[in-house]
Protein: Tetracyclin repressor, C-terminal all-alpha domain
Organism: Streptacidiphilus jiangxiensis
Amino acid sequence: MTNPASKPASKPAVPAPAPRSRSKRSGSQLTPEAIVQASLRIAARGSSDAFTVRRLGEELGADPTAVYRHFRDKDELLLEVADRTLGEVLDSIRPGLGWQDRIRALADGSLAVALKYPAVASAMASRTTRRANEFRVVELILGAVTEAGLRGAEAAVHYRMVGDSLLALVGQRAAYLLFSAEARAADESAWSREYRLVDPQAFPQITAVAEELAGVTQDAVYQARVEALITAIETSVAQHR
Amino acid sequence: MTNPASKPASKPAVPAPAPRSRSKRSGSQLTPEAIVQASLRIAARGSSDAFTVRRLGEELGADPTAVYRHFRDKDELLLEVADRTLGEVLDSIRPGLGWQDRIRALADGSLAVALKYPAVASAMASRTTRRANEFRVVELILGAVTEAGLRGAEAAVHYRMVGDSLLALVGQRAAYLLFSAEARAADESAWSREYRLVDPQAFPQITAVAEELAGVTQDAVYQARVEALITAIETSVAQHR
DNA sequence: CACTGTTGTCAACACTGTTGCGCTCGACGG
DNA sequence: CCGTCGAGCGCAACAGTGTTGACAACAGTG
């Protein structure tokens, strides 16, 4: 079952409270924590090395299938890793910010981890973990839109708008990073080239701003998308009064 | 060929003007068109049947590897299929609409094909085809933001904002559809259940709107996200004057 | 007729995630 | 101290995936 439905008891894993030192087979013992760390290390390698179970075993110096003693499947591991990084993002958000800056901080933090661990962010782009830290995100965004002035159903739908949009934004950017560096470079240069070679008759608008199109940076687009979310909230607040 | 993207001779395919009737091996001959159509048929089956090359061969009544005589790899086939459906979306947009309605029409049409062919839309969520119809989309969005009142770099970055956001939105929704129906149902009911079971002390905002959160529909979120794009453009226009 | 190039078939390769079987070793009861 | 037990790991294997190269059958051309 690789679906997003996992009600049954999730983690016996390490039942004993005692850390029980190092022991077992040869030197280093395999813990969920170690597996998560190794996963992050692999995910950080980005496009140069895909995130696969076998690669994970290699990184751990253990047999790949040993991972399945600690996680039901790869999906559950990804969920755990994603929730972990999400927790770090949340912890890094300073309290006391205005609601706009809290959303910006959430976006910036999420983007940062997405750029650092593209494989993880990409895999989570269209799902939810339903784990502890995700509820913290819900709480954070809901707090922001409430502080902005939205209530009830209006607040709920705007939370979803912001949450889904951020997830999509970050996932999209991460997935793009999973292409090889050469492929990305080729893609970008191809775009700016073809903008200029377009038939002016058929595509007058493109021709008019071909230079500017070639000069648009990913960061500028990111900024615009985040600000669009904030603007949408502000506009909705202004309308409902 | 008024399209901008075809430098390396891409498709000899059917060089002869004569349709050369039916011939070849046993009865039906395999054409790129037939392959695209079969792909669409499979993609329309959604989560019940993954879009794989072997399944495609089955659908065609031919060996799976025969596809590689007409497309370099699966990716190129997906690009072609995606561009095809995108063309239909564009053709369905009535001219003469205001710029806002043109963006809404593009979004609605894209969502419609994404819901119909989730596998295709999902695969295209974080890439671009750089094919003919994609340039038509660029032209359409650029025309809209220009009509709204944006120029130069401002128009360019807003085009990217709208384009990337729509792609992400549609891809996200499609990817969600690729989960099995049961998994999706379980996921949704789990969310609405857990919203209500959350600790009121730790998550006051969630508790306050738990009911409303459970009642938010995908369509409402979609609407909000599209309107957010339009609002962002309008706001930017108002600011730059 | 022979020749050539196109196109479908078949077997195979290099991967992927995942499972069942056995072995080893640490921990625990007596 | 010793025997038993069970958790944790390695190994081999399975069912999938996309893709390639060799082979064969046919169309059109000289």
Q: What stands out?
A: The first helix of chain A runs from residue 32 to 44.
